[in-house]
Amino acid sequence: MSFRRMLKGASGRSLSAKQPESDEQSKEITVHPETNNPTRVWDTIRYKQKVDVVTPVDPATPKPKDHVRFVCISDTHSKTDRIPDIPDGDVLIHAGDFTKICRRKEVKNFNDFLGHTRFVCTSDTFSKTTYLSKVVPPGDVFIHAGSFNNVGLPREVSAFNEFLGTLPHRHKIVIAGNHELTFDQQLMTERNSHVFMSFASAFEGLKTNEWKDIRSLLTNCTYLEDSEIQVMGFRIYGSPWQPVFCDWGFNLPRGQPLLDKWNKIPEGTDILITHGPPLGHGDLASNGCRAGCVELLSTVQRRVRPKYHVFGHIHEGYGVTTDGQTTFVNAAICDVHYRPCNPPIVFDLPTPRVPTVEAESSV
Ligand SMILES: [Zn+2]
């Protein structure tokens, strides 16, 4: 209710402007004789009231130990799609007017907003962070399905990490793709890849300790490599491997070598992130060939059955498809000419449980 409407209800009756001293100090509250004229009442009592302005806690500051953080919002009037990202906290308070006219649909949408986790998916961005910073919408979990830079030089990785630090998402999950050459430790050790050799000058002077521990540069996200994380009650698994493609990073021959990697994906995974697509979903290359992995499709459909499978790699396969069981998201931001032109792909899932800050490993 607006302040203007509150004033409309004032009766304007001329009564004693001041209550007796004894009444004001008593713990037994009685109705003020001028209760309908709050402005006048305030004028009479303000000389002994204290109203100091308090600067709220900056949500970016860490919560002090043994504290509970309350996050307060109000008067959102069904504008949930335009609410800036709600900061981390333990208790969310909404002080009313969450709809416009309280239609059933508004209430349902608001309930969905409270109980859903928003995932924002990207892939194949090749250091185009200026474009990304303009198009990445707010959400709860930011996903990058690999090839976030060109060849994995430390300065590229650091710049990407810096960009991640500017994102408001509560969780940021990243896997490597074929362009993250330095993340492929075997390739860096053997140095016999054609691609590596063609970029030899770029890697000249790169010390072993700079690529051995290249992952440590990604401090603003969770990096997954044949590994799993649980966030907000979702089991998320990430893997960088793809079928042999011009001798880039994390390439493996089709068949058993790739199936060995897919066999590590646990059943019960809710969201699977791989750099390459499975066969038949977002994998149609511009030359008319299907680039997806047959065994990855079989693993997704017959064993793991995730709710979502997020990937990239085949830029021209950008988009979303489903087989009725799993939704497949090719989130390649760049087109086949490496021009950034696609927006991130967003999906919402009902949150399995109320998230707690302490119980999760998140960045
Ligand atoms: Zn790729």
TrEMBL record:
Pfam families: Metallophos (PF00149). The lineage of its organism: Eukaryota, Metazoa, Echinodermata, Eleutherozoa, Echinozoa. Residues 20-31 have a biased composition (Basic and acidic residues). Residues 118-316 form the Calcineurin-like phosphoesterase domain. Belongs to the UPF0046 family. It comes from the Eukaryota. PANTHER family: CALCINEURIN-LIKE PHOSPHOESTERASE DOMAIN-CONTAINING PROTEIN (PTHR12905:SF0), METALLOPHOSPHOESTERASE (PTHR12905). Residues 1-37 are annotated as: Disordered. GO terms for molecular function: hydrolase activity. This is Calcineurin-like phosphoesterase domain-containing protein. It comes from Strongylocentrotus purpuratus (Purple sea urchin).
